[in-house]
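hey so u asked for the seq, here:
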Amino acid sequence: MVAKIFIDGEAGTTGLQIRERLAGRRDLDVLSIAADKRKDQDERKRLLNAADIAILCLPDDAARESVSLIENGSTRVIDASTAFRVDPDWAYGFAEMDKGQSEKIADARFVANPGCWPQGLIATVRPLIAAGLLPADFAVTYNGISGYSGGGKAMISEYETAGDAASHFMPYGLTFQHKHVPEMTLYTGLASAPLFVPSVGDFAQGMTTFVPLQLNHLPKVPTGRELHAAIADHYAGIKDSFVAVAPCEETAKTPDLDPQAHNGTNTMTLHVFANDTRAQAVLVAVYDNLGKGASGAAVQNLNLMLGVSAKESLAA
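ran it, structure tokens below
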């Protein structure tokens, strides 16, 4: 059976990458809207209701509108905006988050694709809270650097226009009210919001994220190897996982933390670095903000919903 797929917002950065990944799939019929009808609500409504699965690559309000236009009881939805990420009626689309998460996604009618930044935090902190190595009330800080494509067309244009004058490192979100914080808090299992300081770099795509841990005030201080083992055990039990855990080793510097290391793939690699004498550690995630962080995750979720290999159309 050929599934009909409609990408609402296919001209945007995420939509274009999803369409590129789906090109050549013989099990899919990708419906397309004419360029002059992208803002035609009636035409969008027709295609949304004709699709087996609609993938929404739109701003939050437009995504909510698209969902409201679906009048049948059969069109399934993957939404790449933040509109529904903490909605209990939507499955959260980070398939490796828990052992049963891929099954929840496969069975869901509505799937909220995760944000790029939240995945690095959830991937590293959630297994440690689940294992009892970090308490839910632990004060977490989170930072990192992402390519400018994460800011969409406006930021891409800004950086490409600036050329050599573009900022090589620019922190932002300094009011600490970033739109990703609610999903970070909910899906890590933290009792309160993390202190999140993202940065953008002068490169198109890719990202590296960091969770520094001051462990010395805990009643039982976990070692670096205990942190690593808990994270590795979690992902060892996940079928068809794109998340890899690097070996636990002491090193002062490694090229493996290059934010562009996994560009063009759906791979995420996690690292644990620790100094047990100081009771300090840092958890690191490296992945493509447009791959596992956006369009790659959407295609992975689409595959799960269609019941085909989770790795179809995705480079590891």
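The first helix runs from residue 13 to 22. The chain has two domains: 3-114+294-306, 116-289.
lmk if thats what u needed
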